[in-house]
Amino acid sequence: MNILNTKAAILSTIMDKASLKQIVYKNTKEIFEELRVVVKNLIEEYNSELGEVDENILLSFEDKGEFEYQIKIASDILVFSLHTNVFQFNRDHNVWKQAYVKTDPDNAYSGIINVYNFLADSFKYTRYEDLGYLVARIFINREKHYIVEGKRQLGLLQTDLSVSTADHDNLRNIVETAINYSLNFDLLVPPYDNVKIMSVGQMFEKIQNARIPTGKRLGFQFKSDDV
Fold this sequence. Notes:
Elements: H1 2-50, E1 60-63, E2 68-73, E3 76-87, H2 99-103, E4 110-119, H3 120-124, E5 133-140, E6 146-150, H4 168-184, H5 192-195, H6 200-209
Antiparallel strand pairs: 1-2, 2-3, 3-4, 4-5, 5-6
Helix pairs in contact: 1-4
């Protein structure tokens, strides 16, 4: 009898969790596609005004396939990446303090859209050693509610999973604030001691490929609450 009960419990859990995760992933994929449209429209809108000033500073969009797309803004690139897995928040996360999740823990299962910031030259010159930074990550649950985690400077950290819905206006706000943050997150000169020694091999590689490792905070500590 215990074997039958265990089997039934396993089958029930598989069916319930599989169904839940499929719904979450489907929602996240749909939001990712809506975000793609928001990004394209935003670029077109901004370019209509920038083009009158200087065509060399126009924003551009590059589609990298089903799970990734990029926008280039001045010397920066923002990469939007969809993770193919569904996650559960760890028990120390703030969402577990919310009644919305306490009442129904299934609301905490989320898909993730990551937004990374890279230097445009890192891609242009294929500098594989260069660093990019996670600017924000968007969590989408089964009801298309969302929260955003990222830099405090973003000013958009939506932390209440119960009230936030990933509609057009909210998605646009996320994109524009991420762009604004990245443009104001300047490239700093690395500490002298980090670059004072270079091998002959590194120098030849630099000459041939222009591949000195570069990042906006290379050699500096970079934390999620960087101010």
